[in-house]
Structures are given as C-alpha cells and as structure tokens.
Amino acid sequence: MGFGVELKKHGAEWIGQCSFHEDKTPSLVVSPKTNLWHCLGKCNVGGSTIDWVMKTKG
Ligand SMILES: [Zn+2]
Hints:
- By secondary structure, this protein is an alpha+beta fold.
- It contains 1 helix and 5 strands.
- The structure holds zinc ion.
- Residues 18, 20-21, 23, 39, 41-43 line the site of zinc ion (ZN).
C-alpha cells in the first residue's frame, strides 16, 4: 500500500505507528478495504493513500 510504516492486522483493519507524530502506541488505523487511514493520536487526521503520500512528501 506504500504507507512506509509497519502495519499489523487488527480485525478487519491494520494498525501501525503514525509517521507524523511521536507515536509510542500504534494509533494509525488503516482500512484495507477502502484504502483509508486515520490517526487516532495527536494528529487526529485521516484520508486516502494519496493524502498520505502528499503528507509524507510535503
Ligand atoms: Zn499521528
């Protein structure tokens, strides 16, 4: 999916550590069905994989 972070399967979703804030507990939730992600931590933002790439590359 090109998220560049390690994701672990968690039910129907994947969770991992967010790249955009100092994430000690995995607060990044990715839905493989819709290709949408959401950071439940500090960022409290989400979007599509395109948004992710844009955010990563600035
Ligand atoms: Zn975050």
